[in-house]
Amino acid sequence: MFLKNTWYVACSAHEIDGRLLGRTICKQKIVFYRDEHGQVAALEDFCPHRGAPLSLGKLCQGKLTCGYHGLEMGRDGHTVAMPGQRVQKFPAIQSYPVQERYGFIWVWPGQASLADPAQIPHFDWYDNPQWAYGGGLYHVRADYRLMIDNLMDLTHETYVHATSIGQPEIDETPCETTVEGQMVVTSRFMQHIPAPPFWRAALRAKGLADEVPVDRWQICRFTPPSHVMIEVGVAHAGHGGYNAPDAHKVYAVVVDFITPETEHSMWYHWGMARQFNPHDAALTEQIRDGQGKIFAEDLEMLERQQLNLSAHPARKLLTLNIDAGGAHARRLIERLLQAEQAPPRT
Q1: 268 and 137 in contact (C-beta within 8 Å)?
Q2: Which residues of the chain fall below pLDDT 70?
């Protein structure tokens, strides 16, 4: 159920500063660290001596040392040294292609020879003085595809996030779903409505009136294996909505990197990149905290949903028009899985 020949976000770059990090990606246990040159490395989390997790070891001048008997590993998966032993002929363990981009560590869990760093998507908001970014990480005990469903259908905001970003107008406004190559797009444009609490605060932060009618938009873009970028914002009504000049709107991109851990668990890297008041560090922290609480509401719902689905695996679920984004995303994943797992042509 997992695409392997693709790039996933494994962790934030700061999570491996000066320490080892063990993390399961697509049911593969991997240890991440920085070598003596500060370069990212990723190895199978398995010591070839006695099978101990290498993530329980330590870094000695950038060299990974097993915490059980002191065996030292090279970043290529070969054993380098061990006190009092000759271990250079030990069979190598698996090493994984890794890249550091946008403040994250990306890993390729599939066939290493196919890993192409050019396939990592480009994001304009990173290291751009016109943007600010803040985010976090949740471990969610649910099928990663449930999170994709959740993010590609924002109708749930009316109910799950009623005190922050939800409002009845979301329910009342139809959404449109399209498939553009290997991207699924679900969009909703709301006209002349009151701004919900989160967006009122954003308008105030930019020095704009917050009690006037606004035009609001949500454009959700899914790309394989499991990334969802959501353009969101509001503009004072009558100024062009999504295309309004910056002086009349607040605009952001909700960043969602969803990395499968097992069939029923995931790592969820979330955040928001915004184009208003980018140098206001206090505002970045305020938005990050508020967004974290919003996503915590999703977390509870998804984990309870997973418990229900696991208890009733044969039960058929209803499909509505609001489910189109998630349904198209699942079909795209399935097509790519079939292609990846097809036997080679002879």
Answers
A1: yes
A2: 87, 158-159, 162, 346
